[in-house]
UniProtKB/TrEMBL annotation, chains A, B:
UniProt protein name: Peptidase M20 dimerisation domain-containing protein
InterPro entries reported for this sequence: Cyt/Met_Dipeptidase, Peptidase_M20, Peptidase_M20_dimer
UniProt GO MF annotations: metal ion binding; peptidase activity
PANTHER family on file: BETA-ALA-HIS DIPEPTIDASE, SUCCINYL-DIAMINOPIMELATE DESUCCINYLASE
Assigned keywords, A-Z: Hydrolase, Metal-binding, Protease
Source organism of the structure: Chondrus crispus (Carrageen Irish moss)
């Protein structure tokens, strides 16, 4: 079996590992649209042998109880650490918070050192720093190397007045930790950190080699990640990458996240005058940039069909196959339930698709900000000199950010040229990432599926996410390593919104999952080498 | 001559004054669209007799030099007072500044008492207070009573970062006083106050009876002015009303302002969800309120014709006559010059009209504010739960605010109903005023024209203003007194915008104008009574 052989070959040494990972990647790329195959479609032999092996390990070889006991004993202390971590307003998009992002990196460095990780360092970029740490002294010289990704920067907290408690003064209410980043991604990122700490504090060692790549620029589209990975390719080389950014269907339903959309962003300024004017003295006699912006933005979508009006924008978007649609239809949360939490009655979007199809597999141009003139209390009779908008566009299939961006720019430029008296300026934002698709068949997902099945007592379901995590495609391209998402945030946690929270129970479950993942990977590799398991 | 007789009859006592003023108003209303007649078309006899009389008074009877000397000597002190006045952030639209509006009223009260005015009092309303003061002890028992209107509230100062110096820390640069309200209307309002002070300090008396109505809610559409005038009708009764709010073509060209547009305002909220969402997780799958708002606002105007798309909105708008167009064409400032100051190349608006026609005589729906989502630095991948807009609509001819408002509300409600997943909420703003037109033939304008001609050595030109001053139509309706605008602000003074300024030279000229106005009115009335001048 193709997958089984690849998995086995990964135990033969660093050089061949790269080749092997590369071949996996090639395999994935050839297939272009990797299908949302149900776990049951994975080779039955692989599945059964791994499952057999895991249960054998837990039952006979390795006793993980001391690690789990350490986690239970230190739950409060770990939570307090997370609270300290979330308290740092590491908003990467705001220059005023650049110092806080760096302070957060320093906090992490100290905490990782305290956990027992080694070679902890702050890696500089032209923007915000990232943090690296490793522990590479696994007893088994052939133990796999596991790269864990997460990010410690957060979204802005606006509108701050809609938060029940201040975004950077984390509060625990009903088992949930509230604060900006409590879920995305500080809460989730801290899960593998705690799991590593538990191992090292309990056993003074880990069963695998681990490397951590903790980013400070994910929320602004990882603009320096490519350079960072290229510059430190050897440092980050690994057999597996796992992402602590991502999510899971619900606290009780495990899932494998297999698709993410790409993204790029831009900002629009429409200028009609050198200065703000009196709306009485000039209104009706000069172009109003707010009117012009409304017309410009309205031109992007057909309100009746929900389709994007930009010529050629769908050219590189693959139609969903019947099989993909059927897989998506198996997702266990009805869209009405998903939407109800947000106070939305009905999914609105591209005609002919349901909510999950729209958000996982269809592109979008979203205006994420629009402003101009007076927004204070009451009325100001002003005719402003300019109007602004911020756009974040999501891509799917083989859409490239570059091509899609140019199509939108052409559309906007042509549309603006038809609006008299207004000059359009388009500023490209460095936020950019490619769409990501992976398969349930990858070695990483296969192991994660077994861990989750073991932990939840349920079969994990396949899912997509509408968001973007740019590093995954870069890891694939530069380090030839395929990323598997293993994160414990859920879709109702107000991510990027007021009152963001993370579930403390999910974090605790996640810590156990990572503990078992490390052991499971080590055991599987050892068993494979010893020929005990046919991997 | 109809006008001459009206003017003469106004000297016969308070009761008949009201009847007379009422008849002027009726006369004006009958004509509905008062034409922009050039001053030269005023009865030659009236013009010549008044002009003869003025020059005779100045040359022989009354020596105003001591008053003008006082003004010259106290120029610095008066300017310092104005600076103190402008320093008070009396922003009427912002509840946070309610205290400042009141402090400003108190400051005015003290200053008016210092000027020698009597019965100075702060008049309470359900909103911000107004200030009343009078001096009713003119020697001549038949001296006319002059009501002077101005306002001490100001527009918000946003965007504050575009000001060269802080909006409420007034600075003098190159003969201009910079600060919010330095022109509109504190600077202009203070002109007649200084003129009155100069008279009283010099002669201990005034040649006419004066009353001051200084409002604290003009910038929010004078929502309590009707009640105030009705409640204090006797207090405000007058033969003439002059407005120190308004403007003049340029520092060297005198003008009579004869038309103002009406106004009303509303705020729109489009809500699509209970909470902000992640633009990746939900984008393309739920309605984006920013997209919906763009479509809604875009529906208000036809970008090609510049016309308002609201059904029936032009029904009560009179076409401009050829004569009116010819009068407007005589306005001495080319539209290109007017626009150049604002950095605007070309007038954009309703097809078939030029800039002055558009802004003086055509209605408009202006979006004065539009906002939603993230407007900070960088990017936030948010799909907000709501979008907002503020509209200020200007009316002309016999358009009523009430009817026009309902037409827009119907349009928006229908348009929003076609946008799936969005709920529109329309909030009426109390800002409201009727269109105002007056004639160059009114007694007030006739006297003002003579004063300006005398002071500038040039014939005043007729002009309109696109803004709204709600009190004028209320004074006509409730007090039966016709308002004449005599104000010395100019269109380039960044009114309602950053770096608002007033010209100190124009204020000084304005003070002289008011001094001569008081004396001119007294002399004209005295001469009329004595039969020396055939008025």
């Amino acid at each position: 079996m193709e997958n089984t052989m690849q998995f086995a070959s990964r135990t033969t040494g660093p050089a061949s590992r790269v080749v092997t990972a590369s071949s996996i990647m090639n395999h994935c790329q050839k297939r272009r649209r990797i299908q949302l195959v149900p776990v049951l479609r994975i080779s039955a032999i692989l599945l059964l042998t791994i499952q057999f092996h895991f249960s054998r390990c837990y039952a006979e070889a390795i006793d993980l109880n001391p690690v789990e006991e350490w986690l239970a004993e230190h739950g409060d202390a770990n939570l307090q650490n997370l609270i300290d971590f979330v308290s740092i307003p590491s908003v990467s998009s705001d220059h005023d918070h650049a110092h806080d992002v760096r302070e957060c990196a320093k906090w992490l460095k100290a905490d990782l050192q305290d956990a027992g990780l080694e070679n902890v360092e702050i890696l500089e970029t032209k923007g915000h720093p990232s943090v690296y740490a490793d522990w590479l002294r696994a007893d088994d010289p052939d133990a796999p190397t596991v790269l864990i990704y997460g990010h410690f920067d957060v979204q802005p907290a606006d509108p701050v007045d809609l938060w029940t408690t201040p975004p950077f003064e984390p509060h625990v209410r009903e088992g949930k930790l509230y604060g900006r980043g409590a879920s995305d991604d500080k809460g989730n990122m801290y899960v593998p950190v705690v799991a590593i700490k538990a191992y090292l504090k309990t056993f003074k060692k880990l069963p695998v080699n681990v490397k951590l790549l903790l980013e400070g620029e994910e929320e602004i589209g990882s603009p320096h990640m490519r350079q960072l990975l290229e510059h430190h390719a050897a440092k980050f080389a690994a057999d597996y990458a796992f992402s602590a950014d991502g999510g899971m269907v619900s606290p009780t339903t495990p899932s494998l996240c297999l698709m993410l959309r790409g993204a790029f962003a831009m900002e629009l300024t429409l200028r009609t005058a050198d200065r703000d004017m009196h709306s009485g003295s000039f209104g009706g006699g000069v172009q109003n940039p707010l009117h012009a912006m409304a017309h410009l933005l309205a031109s992007l979508h057909d309100m009746e069909t929900g389709r994007i009006n930009v010529h050629g924008y769908y050219d590189d978007v693959d139609d969903l196959t019947e099989e993909e649609r059927a897989d998506i239809a198996k997702y266990p949360v009805p869209e009405s339930e998903r939407l109800r939490h947000e106070g939305v009655n009905v999914s609105v979007g591209e005609i002919g698709f349901n909510f999950y199809e729209r958000t996982w597999a269809r592109p979008t141009i979203e205006v994420v900000g629009m402003w101009g003139g007076f927004s204070g209390e009451g009325i100001k009779t002003v005719l402003p000199r300019e109007a602004h908008a911020k756009l974040v566009c999501r891509t799917v299939s083989s859409q490239s950010a570059d091509t899609s961006r140019k199509l939108i720019e052409s559309h906007l430029t042509l549309a603006a040229a038809k609006i008299p008296g207004a000059v359009l300026e388009i500023t490209r934002n460095p936020f950019s990432g490619s769409p990501f698709k992976t398969s349930k068949d990858t070695p990483g997902n296969t192991v994660v599926a077994a861990v989750l099945r073991n932990l939840f007592g349920r079969e994990p379901v396949g899912m997509g996410m509408g968001g973007s995590i740019p590093v995954f495609t870069l890891l694939r391209e530069i380090l030839s390593v395929e990323t598997t998402m293993l994160a414990f945030g859920h879709s109702d946690e107000n991510v990027h919104a007021p009152d963001e929270f993370g579930r403390i129970d999910s974090f605790r479950k996640g810590e156990k999952a990572y503990v078992r993942l490390f052991q499971g990977l080590a055991d599987a590799h050892a068993a494979s080498r010893q020929g005990k398991v046919e991997l």
